[in-house]
Amino acid sequence: MIAAPRAGSWVVAFSFLAAFLLGGLPLPGWLERFRPDWVAMVLIYWNMALPHRVGISTGWLVGLLLDVGRGALLGQHALALAAVAYLTCQMYRRIRAAPLWQQAFSILVFLLVEQILVFWISGVIGYPPRDWWYLAPAVGGMVCWPLVFVILRDARRYFQVS
Amino acid sequence: MAALTPSKRIQYLFTVNPTAILQLGFWVALSIIMMTVDHRYQYLDGLRDVLGTVVYPFQYLMRLPAETKGWLDQNLAGRGALLEENARLREKQIFLNAQLQKLTTLEAENRRLRSLLESTVNTPERLLIAELLAVDFDPYRHHILLNRGRQHHVYVGQPVLDQHGVIGQIIHTDPFSSTAILITDVSHALPIQINRTGVRTLALGTGNFQELKLLHVPNNADVKVGDLLVTSGLGGRFPHGYPVATVAKFEPGSPFANIIAKPVAQLDRIREVMLLEDAPPDEKPAPVAAPMAPMAPPPAHRP
Question: Quick check: helix, strand or coil at residue B266?
Fold first, then answer.
């Protein structure tokens, strides 16, 4: 069962890259507001599936690259994703056992925590959110979770990442 | 993480990771330090440059779908549509040329009059075309990422325009890309002038792509709905006379009138922008020459 410990790292890296690219894809008007944070969802998945390899540090590093890519304050997404990774690594045993649609609700909570942290920091530096729409991406993420989960699980099984 | 022995792996399966809270604390502390430093000082610009260069190819990749669509549109357009577009463009060209002729004489006359008055002559400006790489994902912050950087002599404070009017200015440059702040960002203020009457004021961003707020205009000022606002040239960042917005709403208030203006540039659907270069960068005077710069960085808080 225990093969080369780093087998399939590229699958993880590639899924993060795909999530980053997906985040920049143009969406039709009203969907834009619900655009899920794909990177956070991919992070949660790998965190649940491979808690011994993808952890808080990975979350922070991915968040830092996200900050640079999105021109945010250096550390803004890093902090939020580290927090999400922490929550996931504390809870993954319970979540993993739940059916997919129940998992989605836990994901909603994690994504809400992420959005609130990111926008709280934005508020501190003088860009407070003007309405409640900033929480919409978390809802979009909840709806898309089963899809993300199934795709990543199949990828993980196919490439035997463990 | 490093390779795990079987026993470690089993431990991970059945117990809570004992160092999780320590790890979280470490990374959160590091994030807070980095954010503070990034917000207040410039020490992290080097790190941002390095990481930015790493991320840049992927940002470019992100544009591929849109680019492919544009390419397909161009190459698969029907002959009829092309001919029609050609005719339309030719007509527009003639129209613009006619206007330009008038402008040339006006410019010459203007220069002659200015030399009579011995005032400074506006140097002709150069344009650099840039394309949009990405918009800020934070919907309340109006920053855009452009595909030109220091390699193309983009500098901080450079005015950004589109075909209709002023869009914003550059606030950060990377080697191959740069970030611009839009005039509608809540932290942006632009010195403007009402074209019809010459009343000077500031246009503040509101965080809404369709609205600018005019500051400190008295109730009895000569402002009408539909008036064109142009850059006043004060502050030294933007040259004089570029269209910015039109007055959309005027209502008396206390102590000053509440005036809302609508930007003439279509800020929410930018594809290509123009960077205005008033002089080659090596001849540019030091940025100290802009005492009333609209986006002057906050004074550094030194202990």
Answer: coil
Rg (CA), chain A: 15
Sort A5 into a burial class: Cβ within 10 Å, 0-12 / 13-18 / 19+: middle
The shortest CB-CB distance from A75 to any of B34, B59, B207 is to B34
Let me know: does A11 contact A156? Beta carbons within 8 Å: yes
Residues B277 and B127: beta-carbon distance below 8 Å? yes
The answer to whether the Cβ–Cβ distance between A79 and B138 falls below 8 Å is no
Q: Give the residue carrying structure tokens 């509440």.
A: B258
The pLDDT of residue B294: 45
Residue A53 φ/ψ region, left for φ over 0, alpha for ψ in the -120 to 50 degree band, beta for the rest: alpha
List of chain A residues whose C-beta atoms are within 8 Å of the C-beta of residue B66: 26
Residue listed under structure tokens 């992927």: B58
Q: What is the pLDDT of residues A8-56, one digit of tens each?
A: 788 999 999 999 888 877 777 788 888 899 999 999 999 999 888 888 9
- Closest to B271 (Cα-Cα) out of B134, B83, B115: B134
CA distances for A68 relative to A62, B47, B163, B179, angstroms: 10, 10, 29, 11
Whether residue A6 has pLDDT greater than 80: no
Domains and CATH numbers, chain B: 126-279 (2.40.10.340)
Tens of pLDDT, residue by residue over B56-86, are 888 878 777 777 877 887 778 778 888 999 9
Enter the ipTM.
0.86
* Contact B59/A at CB under 8 A: yes
d(CA A8, CA A5): 9
CB nearest to A73's CB, from B33, B35, B179: B35
d(Cα B88, Cα B221) in Å, to the nearest integer? 42
CB B31 within 8 A of CB A78: yes
A82 touches A59 (CB < 8 A): yes
Does the beta carbon of B179 lie under 8 angstroms from any beta carbon of chain A?
Answer: yes
Beta strands in B64-222 (DSSP E): 126-135, 143-146, 159-161, 166-173, 178-182, 189-194, 200-205, 212-215
Q: How far apart are CA A90 and CA A107, in angstroms?
A: 13
The answer to whether A58 touches A43, Cβ cutoff 8 Å, is yes
Burial code (b: 16+ CB inside 10 Å, e: under 16) for B151-160 equals: ebbbeebbbb
